[in-house]
Amino acid sequence: MSEAVERATNAFVEQIDGPVVSFFESCVHCGLCADACLFYTETGDPQYTPIHKLEPMKKVWKQHYTFWGRLLHGLGLTRPLSEADLENWETLLYDSCTLCGRCSMVCPVGNDIAYMVRKSKEAMVAAGYSPPTLKEATLRSIRLGSPMGISMDVFKKQLGHAEQSCGLPIPLDVKGADYLVMLSSSEVLAYPEIIEALAVIFKEANVSWTFSSENFEATNSGLQIGSADIERQLVLRIVEAAEKLEVKNVISPECGHAYTAVRFDGPNLIGRPYKFKVLHIVELLDQLRAEGRLKISDKIDTALTYHDPCQIARRGGVINEPRNLLGMVASDFREMEEHSDMNWCCGGGGGVSANERAHELMHKVFSKKKSQIQSLGVDALVTACSNCRTVIEEDLEDNEMDIEVLSLTELLAEHIEKQG
C-alpha cells in the first residue's frame, strides 16, 4: 500500500461516523438521486450518479465496518483501495458535485449524500488528491486572507472608491457596531458596487455597521476543498475580528458557502458558541423590511426571476426572505417551475467554479438552468450569491442570451426611498 493510499484509508476511517454508517446501510440503490443531479441529467452519464461518487468511502466502510467485508478483506478476497481509485474518484468528487444537496432531498431513506461527499473530500485532501487550482486558491486564503489574493490594502482602496462614488462614509473598525459586514473576494474584485449598495441601504435604514481591518473575507476555501482544519482556521479569523470589535451580529455576504461555513459549521469547528449572531445579508434586509426601515421609491418593470443559491436556500432555509424583498421592488416577478428548496444549482458551487479543470463540464450542465430561464421569457435574473452570479453571467453570454444578472442587494439599493 502506497503512502498516499494509506493516508486516504486512515482518513476515510476517521470520517466514517454514525450518520455515514447508517446512510450506507440504509441505501436501497433506487437511483433516485441520479435524476436529482444536473451532472447526470444533463450528460446521461451514470458515473455522475451521486451515490456512485462515494465508492472509495463505501469500499473502506465495507472492509472495516461490516462482518463480511472484514472477513473477505482479511482473507485477501477483496481489492483494497488503490491509487487508481483515488485518481478516478477525485475528479468525480471535485468536478461533478457542487454540494448542492438536491440529491439528499429526494432520497427515500433520508441519506445526506452531500454530507458524505464533504467527508470523502477530507480523505482526498489528506492523501494529496485535489484540483491544482483549488489548492492554489486555498493556499492564497491561508497566506493572504483571500482566495483571489486580494490584500487588505486593495480592500481599503475599494472602500475609498466606494466612498467617492456614493458620497457616503464607509465605516471601518467601529467598535460596538450592531453589524460586522463580511464580503467575498469576488464581490470586492468583480462587483465592488455592492459596497456602495450597502452604504446606501444602511444609511436610509439607520443601521449601525462596520467593516473590519482585520479581515473582510467570508469565502471559505477550506469548505470547498474539503479540509475541516482549514475551514476552522478561516472561520476563526472572522470570529476574532467580530469579537475584537464587540459587534452584535456578523453579516454573511451574497455567497453561499461562506454562509454555510460561518453560520452552521463555525461553532462546531471552533468548539464553542459565538458571542454574536450570524445572518445572511438577505435575512438582514428582510428584517429591515419587516421593521418598516426599508422603503422602496419605485419598482423595476423588467420581467425577472430569482435563482435560489443552493447553500442559502436548500441548505440554509433562506427562501421566503428574498421573495418578500422582490415583492417590494419587482412588478413582474416570474417564479421558476422548480424553485426554493428544489431549485437547480448553477453548476459552479462547492469549489467547481474555482476548479479550472471542471469548467467544460460546468458549462455543459448549465443547460438545466438555461431551460429554466428560457421557459419564463424574462429579461433579468436576480440572485443572492456572487458565485452564482458570475457562473450564470458567463454561461448566458456563452449561450448568447441577452439576460441581465442582478444582485438582490444592489437592486434594492437602486430603488430605495431616500430621505434626503
Topology (elements, then pairings):
Elements: H1 3-15, H2 18-26, H3 38-41, H4 55-65, H5 67-74, H6 83-95, H7 102-106, H8 113-127, H9 132-144, H10 152-166, E1 179-181, H11 185-190, H12 193-204, E2 209-210, H13 221-225, H14 228-245, E3 249-252, H15 256-270, E4 277-280, H16 281-290, E5 304-307, H17 320-329, H18 359-364, H19 367-374, E6 380-383, H20 386-398, E7 404-407, H21 408-414
Description:
This protein is mainly α. Helices cover 51% and strands 6% of the residues. The protein has helices spanning 3-15, 18-26, 38-41, 55-65, 67-74, 83-95, 102-106, 113-127, 132-144, 152-166, 185-190, 193-204, 221-225, 228-245, 256-270, 281-290, 320-329, 359-364, 367-374, 386-398, 408-414, and strands at residues 179-181, 209-210, 249-252, 277-280, 304-307, 380-383, 404-407. The strands form 2 sheets. Strands 2-1-3-4 form a 4-stranded parallel beta sheet. Strands 5-6-7 form a 3-stranded parallel beta sheet. β6, α20 (386-398) and β7 form a beta-alpha-beta unit. α1 (3-15) runs antiparallel to α8. The protein is globular, with a radius of gyration of 22 Å. It starts with a helix and ends in a 6-residue tail after the last helix. The model has no long low-confidence stretch (mean pLDDT 95).
